[in-house]
Batch of 3 targets.
Target 1
Amino acid sequence: TNETGMSSCVVSTRLRLFAKKKASGTHLSTGWFTMILATEMCDHTRVYGMVSHEYCKKPDAKPTLYHYYKGSAWQESWQECSVYNDMEGKKKAAHRFLREKRAFQRWSKYHDITFRFPTWQPTV
């Protein structure tokens, strides 16, 4: 851990990802930074409202609004899986939500993370 309290692993990951941001046209979500903060500060992290990266492939995936707040009519028509899949294919100004979820699954091997509502078990 360095003087700011962040592990060298977290710092190097952030630096690599930011260096690739311009080339990849993507940017990290607030969920990404929240997970970094939670796993660095807490012994156990409970995550609510995050589906697994496999969820949208399921035929019984429930349609869920992308944002938890009410906005304009077009925002309220966004379905979570549609947004995730669309973002994966965008060339710029995109989040890679499904890739982030796969990363969180891998992090659960090293951090005590529980995923709730929906509940899912990481397969690491």
Target 2
Amino acid sequence: MMLFKRQVESGRVALISNGPLKHKLCTIIEIIDQNRALIDGPCSGVRRQPINLKNLHLTKFVLKVPHGSRSRVVRKQWVQEGLQGKWDKSQWAQKLQRKELRANMSDFDRFQVAKARTMRNRIVRSALGIMKKKNTIKKRKPNKKIHRG
């Protein structure tokens, strides 16, 4: 029985969670010890450096690079597999993008979104009411019989 689906391994693509490189993709090149790994992200602006594994979120993507490979080998494999495109299509990346967009919204933008939401809900509610009226069949009320005993 396998508990974990994503292993810390050479070639595993990870997302940096803390620090100045937050939300950037990198590739694990070499495992230094149980707490640190050597990473490289030549296409995402991450220099080759050791990083604590606690600061990495492992993704489902794995590049086929030998451990200890140079940056140009990683870059070549990254481009060949179209990793940036795959990442941009993933739900995780889209969620991060939406979160960043919301964080950069002004007060007026939030107001416009709220108004648009209320208008959409009003239209949906009225359409749903019309559909309910069309689909309901008026049922007769049963006759009340008085039983005298």
Target 3
Amino acid sequence: RIGSRTNTRASHEEKVSEGDDGDDEDDDGDEEDEDDSSHLDMGVVVKFLPRIEELRLTYGVNDCGMNFAWSLFNFTPMDCNRLSAAVERCSTLRVLHLERSHVDDQLVRKLLSRIQKHPTLKELSLSHNKIG
């Protein structure tokens, strides 16, 4: 277990939590004005999980200390781009849980547009988000 802001749990009960790798651009080439060190780039994680079948994610913070900002608790457009790119690379992923992450309608549409043709993904859980 590595300390930082985003908790991730893979199907074989591995827990990973770490800061970002410092990419400044999302996959669409648009620069984001947000602090991109707030959440983990899942692409870094999935490289080490080549046979992952289930992934449970909650975007939030463990300890923000004096640097509190409500934006730390949200699933951002950059998070969406990075997660969808990571999911596209997971050829064995069957189940994705993205719960309690303040995902809104716009980000759901963006995520679904990227992962809808995934060859093995059969279940997507978006419970307890800001959809609708």
